Structure formats: structure tokens, C-alpha cells
Amino acid sequence: xxxxxxxxxxxxxxxxxxxxxxxxxxxxxxxxxxxxxxxxxxxxxxxxxxxxxxxxxxxxxxxxxxxxxxxxxxxxxxxxxxxxxxxxxxxxxxxxxxxxxxxxxxxxxxxxxxxxxxxxxxxxxxxxxxxxxxxxxxxxxxxxxxxxxxxxxxxxxxxxxxxxxxxxxxxxxxxxxxxxxxxxxxxxxxxxxxxxxxxxxxxxxxxxxxxxxxxxxxxxxxxxxxxxxxxxxxxxxxxxxxxxxxxxxxxxxxxxxxxxxxxxxxxxxxxxxxxxxxxxxxxxxxxxxxxxxxxxxxxxxxxxxxxxxxxxxxxxxxxxxxxxxxxxxxxxxxxxxxxxxxxxxxxxxxxxxxxxxxxxxxxxxxxxxxxxxxxxxxxxxxxxxxxxxxxxxxxxxxxxxxxxxxxxxxxxxxxxxxxxxxxxxxxxxxxxxxxxxxxx
Length: 440
Fold this sequence. Notes:
The protein contains 10 helices and 4 strands; from the N terminus they run H-H-H-E-E-H-H-H-H-E-E-H-H-H. By secondary structure, the chain is an alpha+beta fold. It folds into 2 domains: 2-6 and 25-61 and 105-273 and 309-434, Outer membrane efflux proteins (OEP); 62-73 and 85-104 and 274-308, Outer membrane efflux proteins (OEP). It has a 4-stranded antiparallel sheet, with no helix packed on it. Helix 7 runs antiparallel to helix 8.
């Protein structure tokens, strides 16, 4: 029954990685470009920014509007001591064409500058979204690979433990070992069955996260080559911090936000200045004062209108205070992000270079544990060691292999994270990592 359950688990594992469309990292990335909605949201945000910038710019350009009215009028004149009253009915028409051009309006100008900066901010946010997608794809892809490897290693250990258990059962039948030895190995086997179930669920979880990016079922993924040369990242931490400051799109976006809020504050302060407009008007009408009938006349008008704000009951002061606080918040947001990104860059650089040493150490540990396990197996055949010794050596083999796999995948993820936080991750980097996979 136990062996049947193990075979069923292995069959389910094969079904979990049934091939569909994705073969390598580049395939998954290209699928995510089509399936991830974050890029589409970023595009829409850029469209909104451009539309607002267009509105702000248009408010400073000439504004032309036309009006027209058609009316039926009745005028009753009451009688007095000197005249009799009468009633007059007549139709009226009035057409008016007005052209207005701002000559001096600083709030409009600063609003346009503010919207221009916001529009640039949305562009930088789109760049960060695209780079974050690349990092998410790499993270999701190698998380699946690591989960698959963990599942496979449990299967290998399960098979090795089953062979040992069969040997012990045969020896027990010949009264060569104690029943406690058989039970210990069987307990280990049962524990591995539980570990296999957990590892299987981790594969499902990792694949679901990757499928969330693509919007499609992810198939069998190419694994990481064993002969990759893992190199330390060159340059000092100070050099990487310079790259973060100069090229990270999040900081560039927040810097644009600070500039936008600065112009927003200037807009509110400048609302205390006079506003000067040039107005041209062309009017044709046969309606006079109080809708009285008059001969059809044409009137052309040109004038300069000056509006001077004198007292707003604290409205302007409140708007200035609000804009001041918004500017402070934008600067604080930048500072928070800067500190977080510097810490992340430091951590990614350290972890990447540490993983190079961990990979070398894990390789040696894996080779040593493998040789030790072989020696224990031979010793068990000769009766020199116990089954518990074999189990311990076997466990060390798979633990060291798990540590090696984790260090290899961690190197790729931390290296990619460092490039992302520095604003250097590109599709060419995805292609480079893709060449580290089997088949290249």
C-alpha cells in the first residue's frame, strides 16, 4: 500500500509539469508581457498624464466661444396720465463671438508645469513597472525550478529509503537485524511521504504564482545548467549606490513628484497676483437693454481685463498650506524610498557575492556527503554500520544538494534584484539568464 501511494505521488508529480507553451525564461517573459495587466495600467496612467498636460497647456492658449439666442418678446406699456398703454410683440436674435487670450496668468502657467512633471512621473513609473515585471518573472521562474528540485530530491530520498527498508525486511526475516531497525527506517519512509506531499504543494503554489504573471498555464520549464560559472559582482557598494541614485526609476518618479508639487505650491501662491486677459468680441443683435426692440446692430469690442484678488476669507491661505504639506510629503516619500533602495542594493550585492562562496562550499559538501553515503552503504552491507548511520548519511546527501540548489538559485535572484534596484535590468539581461538554462 505504501509503495502504491509512492507511485501515485510520482505520477501526480509528472502530471504537474505536463508541457504546454513555456519552454524557457524568455518564453515566460514574453507571455507575461501579454498577460500581465500592470503594463496596461501604466500605459493608461501615462495617457491620463498627457491628457491633463494638454488641458493645462490649452488653458493658456486662445479660447474662442460663440453664443446665440432666439426669443419671442412681448412688451406691455402701462397707461399714465400722459399716454395710453400699449402692447408690442416682436422676435429677437442675438449672436456673439468672443475670443479670450491670457496675457498674464501665473497660476495657469505653474499648473501646466506641474502637470508636465506629473506626466513625466507616470513615464518613470511605467519603466519601473516593466523592470519589476522582469524581476517577478525571474523570481517566479526560478522559484518553480527550486520547488521542482525539492520535490525530485524528496522522491530520490524516498526511493533510497525504500531500498534500505527492503534490505532490512529481508534481513529481519532471517533474524539478522532487530525489529526496531526496520521500524526506524519505516518511520523515516513515512515522514518522507509527508514531505513529498508538502513539496508537491509547494510546486503547485510556485507554478500558480508564475501563471499569475502570464495569465496562461505554465508548462515544463528548462532547468539551470550545472556548468555555469558564478562570478562576484564587480565594483564597490558606493558605485552601485551611485547607479541607484542616478538610474532607479522609482527615485526618478518620486523626484518628478517633488518637482510637480513644487510647481503646485507656486501655483497656489501666484493666485494672489493679478490676472490679465485680452478679450475680442463680435456681436450682432436686434435686442437692446431689458430686451427692448432696436434696429439690428453689429458691435466689435477689444479690451484688456484685469482681475485683482483682494480678499478670499482664508481660501487662498488654506490652499497654500495644503500645497506646502503636499510638497513635504513628496520629499519624505523620496527619502523613504531612497533609504529603502540603498538598503536593498546593499543587501542584494552582499547576498550575490556571498552566494558565490556558498555555491563553492555547497559543492564540496555535496561531494563529501555523497562519498560518505557510499561508504556507509558499503559498510552496512558488511555489517560494520547500522541502518541509522546509513539514514543519517543519506539525509546529509540530500540536505547538501538542497543547499547547493538554493545557493545557485539565490545567486540568480539576488543578482537580478541588484540590477533591478540599480535600474540596469533589461530584456537583454533576461536573454542572458536564459542562456544559463539547459539546451543553450
